[in-house]
Design a protein that fits this description.
By secondary structure, the chain is mostly helical. The protein folds into 2 domains: about 150 residues, no CATH class; about 240 residues, Pectate Lyase C-like, CATH 2.160.20. About 55% of the residues lie in helices and about 5% in strands. It contains 11 helices and 4 strands. The strands form 2 sheets. The protein has a two-stranded antiparallel ribbon with strand order 1-2. The two termini are about 80 Å apart.
Amino acid sequence: MKKKKVKSNNDKLLIGLIAGAVLGFLIYYSLNVFADFSKTIFIVFVAIAILIAIILLVFTWFRGAIIRKFFGKDIEFSTVINDTQETLNLISEKAAEQLPIEEDQKQKLIEFAPKIINYLLWSNFRNWGLRIFTSFVLGLGGIVTTILFLNQNKLFEIQNKRIDQQTHLAEASRRSSQIFIMGEVLGQLNQELILNRSDTLSNTLVGRIISLSRAMKPYRYLNNDSLISKPLSPERGQFLISLVESKIDSSFFTKRIIRFCDFQYSDLNNANLSEADLWNINLQYSDLRLTNFWKADLTHAYLMNADLRKASLREARLINANFANSDLTGANLSDADLYQSDFTNVLSLDSVEVDRTDWLIYIRDSLQLKGSHKLFNDYRVDSVPYNPDADFKKIILVKKNRRE
């Protein structure tokens, strides 16, 4: 028969340390998950602790009745130790009498046997208590160490995030100095428009406008205490709005300025560009989505031949906007108001994000979108995972394969 292997104290201590580390990990992440419910959880734990204390008090107070109920007799706890000692003495005397030894040796055995038994019982109890206490201390140490380690990692992440924010903010501060240059250019523009009745500008000023639009590079800035997900240029957005509102001659504006300016990554949240003449404009990766309950307004805007690849037009007001021959590859048109807009001969709607699976039918039958019949024939609505780890879907437009 094989002997059962007994775990050593070191194994037990190691188990206690590992259990403490695991418990510390669970405590740390549970605190993060339930941070919003910390007050409720605290009240629940206090209530449970009070309930346990009441149960223990009841058991202690009525222990006599409980023991009598289950064991049929009372136990006087004050005499348990004395009774135990007397029992040990009696057992020692009876055992010594049965041994074939001399009388003086029997007396010594009767005298020392209870002491030895008491010592063995007490030493075992003491060792058991020390092991429990040591395991508890090691477990507590594992909990504290794990929490401190994870918290340190979290602090490092926050620190790295703050360093990243400071780096981007320094860059944003440097680039925001271009606002002063923009003010000078707009001041010069205003003077020339006052002096020139044809609403055109000098070649020198046109060159400054084009170079300034290209110098206003996109960057990430803080929004609600966190950096925006993709770089944008608020300066380009402000510059474009200012140029549109300057009422430069429409033909001159589109041929000499818009055509050569760079307005990619423009931050145009909530911008009012209604009836704006934006032929050939480059608004790649620009952001015209809804924020702060206001919608970017491009009602009756002329966006023919515009480059709107990867632009966000989410929930924008695009009523009667003209997108003829424009490129909207990868743009976001979710919840955009496209009533009676013109999509005649649009270059591409590949991977355009929309908000409904019947979008092609909806724009054809309900929105009276110009060019929608051709779109219905050339495209289909499909859904793909937003990312490999996500369960939800993103609705996109995918161009049909060409028929051979």
